[in-house]
Structure formats: C-alpha cells, structure tokens
Amino acid sequence: MQKPIERSWDLSIDPDTVRLFVLKAKAISAAINDDYNDGAEHEIELDDQMTDGHHHDGLVEEESENLTEAELRELIGDLNVDEAAELVAIAWIGRGDYEISEWDDAVAEARLRDRRRTAKYLLGMPMLGDWLEEGLEAIGA
User: For residue range 58-98, what is the model confidence (pLDDT) as tens digits?
Assistant: First the structure.
C-alpha cells in the first residue's frame, strides 16, 4: 500500500463517483462463474428410489450481471475528458503502474487514450474494483 501524500491538485472526478464504480466493478467480478451451464438438465432425487431429470432455464441473475456491466459502461462513457483521464490514472496508480508523485504524468498519459474506449479498457482489467479502491486510497480521496 502506498502512503498518501498531500495533493497539490483538484480532482475533476468526484471520489464518490469512483467509489460507485468500485462497487459496480466488484459486483461484476463476483458474478456467477461461466462454468454454470444455462438450461442444463440435472438429476434430482425424489425419494430413496426415484430420480427425475430437472431442467432449468438458467438464472435470472445472469441478466442482471450484464445490466450491471452495461450500467458501468454507460456511466464511464458519460464522463468528460478530464474525468475519464483521472479515472484511468487512479486505476493505474492502484495497479502500481505509477506512483502518486507521478499523478500529472499518469493523467497526461491517460488523456492520450481514446476516451471512447475508456469503458472497454477499464472493464478489461480483472481487478478494476480493487485497483480503483487502492488508487483512491493512495491519492487520499
């Protein structure tokens, strides 16, 4: 864990917005494993001697997982250029790509990225929620 330093900058992105992203990203990571077969038959035991095949239509929660991801994509897509760059920089700091003392460099590098791909880029990070959380802690927000 990095030691927070006193910031000499103001954040464009609200730390509470980043915390919301943390919760949504962690919800996506904790979603049902893909190894659950949708619509598969399973044998169930009715009593000691009888068994029957049971067919299910999958879990409704699978759709809500996609909704959570779609919501997060939309929320990230609604960020302005400065907010999107800072969100990426926070993730990079949390991941250890940059030190907090390199905040300006991280934001400048993040600004060079295509903002339209920010959601796809961030959601491709397997530990996005953790890295955003650690980045927020590192910058003292």
Answer: 444 444 445 688 899 999 999 999 999 999 999 999 999 99
With DSSP H G I counted as helix, E B as strand and the rest as coil, what are the percentages for the chain, rounded to 5?
A: 55, 5, 35
CA distance 18 to 136: 8
Count of alpha carbons within 13 angstroms of residue 131, beta-carbon side: 21
Report the alpha-carbon distance of residue 63 to residue 90 in Å, rounded. 29
- pTM, entire model: 0.71
Question: Would you say the C-alpha torsion 134, 135, 136, 140 has a positive or negative sign?
Answer: positive
Contact (CB, 8 A) for 54 and 42? yes
Tell me how far apart the alpha carbons of residues 131 and 128 are, in angstroms, rounded to a whole number.
5
